[in-house]
Amino acid sequence: EVQLQASGGGLVQAGGSLRLSCAASGFTFDDYAIGWYRQAPGKEREAVSCISASDGSTFYRDSMKGRFTISSDNAKNTVYLQMNSLKPEDTAVYYCTAGPWRGSYYYGIPDDYSGQGTLVTVSS
105 exposed, middle or buried (CB, 10 Å; 0-12, 13-18, 19+)? Predict the structure, then answer.
């Protein structure tokens, strides 16, 4: 059974930082890409970032480039999302997703599997 356990959300002031973690199990980690989506109240879900555990390829949404950094610890089957310079508009539920690595992000961030979300609230 595939399990994706997200953690690390919380309340932070604008300009602050948080690190989200996604602990994965139930699949061959090295063959997958693990990513993050977020959904704010009243808004559609949007892709945030992703990393291929196979070759380290990364994806970032334009508005996150330079502020967010994704990394993978393959020995721990865990992906981290370091979020710096947080803004109130980053407030959302962040979801961890996973899917087989397809060699590129041409088709977007794989989301064959999704875990429960973790709430990030950025106060102004």
Answer: middle
